[in-house]
Give the backbone structure.
Amino acid sequence: MGEGAWIRISDNRWRRLSRREFLRLAAAAGAGAAAAGLMPLLRPPRMAVAQARRLTFLHWSHFVPGFDKWFDGEYTKEWGKAHDVEVTVDHVPSAQVPARAAAEVAARQGHDLFQFITPAPNFEPALEDMGDLVEPMIKQHGIVDLARKSTYNPKTKKWFAFSLSFTPDPAHYRKDAWDEVGFVPDSWDNLLRGGRMLKARGLPIGIAISGCIDSNMALRDCLWSYGSSIQNQSAEVVINNKNTVEAIKYIRALFKEAMDPEVLAWDDSSNNRAMQGGKISWTLNAISIARTLEKTDPEFYPKVQLWKPPRGPNNLGGKRLGSEHVFFSYGIWQFTSPEQKKLAKQFLVDYGNNWARAFVGSEFYEFPSFPGTVSNLQDQVLHDTVAARLGQPNMYRELTTALSWSTNVGFPGFANAAEGEVFDTYIIPQMFALAATDKMTPEEAAKWAGEQVESIFAKWRGRGLV
Amino acid sequence: MEEGAIREPWRAVARHRLRGDRLLGPLMLAPAILYIVALVGFPLLLAIYLSFSNATTGSQTLNYVGLTNFARALDSTIFRAALTNTFVFTLVSEILVIVLGNVLALTLQQKFRGRPVVRFLILMPWAAPFALGAIGWKWMFDSLYSVVNWMLRAIHILGPHDFPQWLGVTKLAMAAIITVHVWRMLPFSAIVILAGLSAIPQEVLDAAAVDGASFPQRFWHILVPMLLPITTVAVLFGTVFTFTDLSLVYILTAGGPFNSTHVLSSWAFQVGIIAGDLAQGAAIALFLLPVLLVVAIGMLRTASRAEAGV
Amino acid sequence: MSRTFSKAIGRSGLYLSIAGFTFFAAFPFAWMAITVFKRILDLYNIHNNPFLFNLPPTMENIRLLFGETLFTRWLANTAFVGAFVVLITLLAAVPAGYSLARLARGWGQKFGIGIFLTYLVPPSLLFIPLARVVSALHLQDRFWALILVYPSFTIPFCTWLLMGFFKSVPAELEEAAMVDGCSRLGALRRIVLPISIAGLLTVVIFAFTLSIQEFVYALTFISPSAQKTVSVGVPTDLIRGDVYYWGALMAGALVATIPVAFLYSLFLDRFISGLTAGAFR
């Protein structure tokens, strides 16, 4: 082995090369650190205010961006000033609320007030009982049934969350087109009859049959108004029945005759875009479609109108039910310190009594869970300033009926943890999709769903939550 | 040996070092081992423990329930679809990544005008924060405004009324997932292979060329065997990354249409975290661990044997 | 190599391959760039040619991204986290890789495999137990949590990768240096590391990329806006339930990608030339 030669080679060549490389590397790392503005980053956040009282919120990014500005920058600042509390509101993407909640529970450390986006019964064991807040609110303002059924567990007799609001899920439809074909999309039957004609004109119906919230809600509406449901009032699984089969048959017909296959690919934003782009004649959605059009396309805006969710067939009871679109509720973790719990509850009481302001701040996107908190709701909705300015003062009129047809996931029972898992794993959209795409007959699809749901319910019963 | 040591002094030094090395070896290994034990080993044990319990995301009290979670997972049709998908997804995308990665590496090794620009563009997918890149693809596959479909129409691959729903039909959605995954993984595989390629001594290739070997001959008899170890690295990394990746399916299709494109990790996340059945999710996520272990050990052995052979 | 290979496949084949790969890699970014400057009515008009500006271009999306979100802060956080993760990864993986390649004889191989295998652990649930660790160290809601956690998935692969690179360095090189009076660590620093520069750069690129791309931990451990990374910050503010701010989202993706890709392509040049200049086998 000529070891000397090796050393010379490496000395002469490699060592020089290496320094250059490492300088480059160091320069890059340095540039990264410099870009990051080293100093402010090294300072731990929020340490300066150790003495003052603090209250922290976890909110998901509100669908109405203006609401976050109002809540973070205005309301909580005012409240904080009045009570000598420094308030911080952190945000996560709306789809990631459960993951964040799971992490906070696992860490046994988190925000003082945690805002959920769907009912949170599976977190019940980790959540504080809110009964002492809810009961007085009910006495003073009343409560809508869907809020009670989404925050109370009759089995454990516990109010595991405190809800101030929910979002109704009305229909958006192309009034111009529906008038031309001479139908009002007031019932599922009409939807199919008018939809056939409208599809021929290039304006199909748009109900997502896919793994998203819109689909979960719309298809439940259909199931319920056909006189079926996933569970009954006493949390027994009843979905595999002949009314479900009828509903599946209906959606299959609607899919084949009045919709485009694209609905199988939709997410929550797709029907908004399709309506804005003038591609569909009817969809169920929170008012974000109308509100977006106000900002982006005032000319097209008047053609899109709101209507109630469709009625079911008369021989099956002709029910009209619309699931809430978003359910707002606050939870307080049990591991939160007693002082913070007290402060958080104090905020909730004050906020609840001032909730009328949030109603305006959310641009009517949120509706009250305690109806008495907004005394002149009808009046306000009928005089929406933006709609009036665009010459459509009646735009949101149908919302005034929302309290009568809105209901909760889990209807006619409670929104329990098992219903939550059925919701989150999209069993209902899958059931409809399997039949609509002829992978199963309607009977098989209903049976399949029955098995899946039964297994999920059994699991959560075993945990004592259902 | 003794005499040899005297004739070759560095051996003696090496033996002298050996005693120090006995200490130095573990010492140098310690930081990595500690890190892994604390931040992977311990959480993994907890995850395994969870999979035998009835834990939920909202509950701290655990009861042992044996293999119930695994049995229940196997019962579910969605789980079985996810299991199949995981294999199909990994296998197809890995084959594509390796074949294309080799071609790309061979291409990038050539000299051509504008090479720096091309290399910059080709590295972009790997440099992009993937969550945002995937949102970009979601937009490209949009059900109404898919620019992919628009282009396919423009070059008359699609008729004027065809509009395939990339994320709405199981097979197309799987194709979309695989496409995006290959897009993301290709640059890194090509880099790794490029490194291997560069390490092949020019003399070997020149000698073969002088001997009159044709390109295919040189490709199969020199390039392929010499690239094997480094390609195994790329395959191993890619396989594991693909097997355990969650964000792609989660962002692109959310498992749709009708839960038919889930892979195990996305289904585990959906059930365990979003729906709150932590124990069930853990069972789903850990289901393939034994299989992965066997595959990985086999491949690692092959890789080290190939290395020793070169 | 260059001469013989290109003769075989031909120049046209080469250019076809270049064109194909470049299109595949870069088209999504081109489409993002177009989306950034489009007005929403232009974007949502199905009859338009999507590559043309049928309405005048707008800067609104850029303004939204830089003016209404903490985008620059997220970029800085991401770079900072990435740089730190790379540093920690190198500090742990270089000695470990070397130890496995050189110092550990029989058990080196087994340990190497063992370390690599930890990479197989599916991360979809690991954040639950890790959340506990993060909170015990009082790192919750600070990006230091990510700096702590990310090396857990970069170290295993990087150690294993470096072990391979170190093994390919002829042992005689170091031994000769040690005869000349170098300590083992000195030989590592002066001989082995410089020769393994390609491996080190691979590790740097790999660790940095993985830390940029990570999503689940960043999402669950960090909630204050000022502490977020790009991957999480951008969707938080620009996906509002059923409304996607496409233009601003795409702008965020592009702006975050370009400098990193540029940096990589600089390194890649050195990386390849460093290797081809002198094959080390």
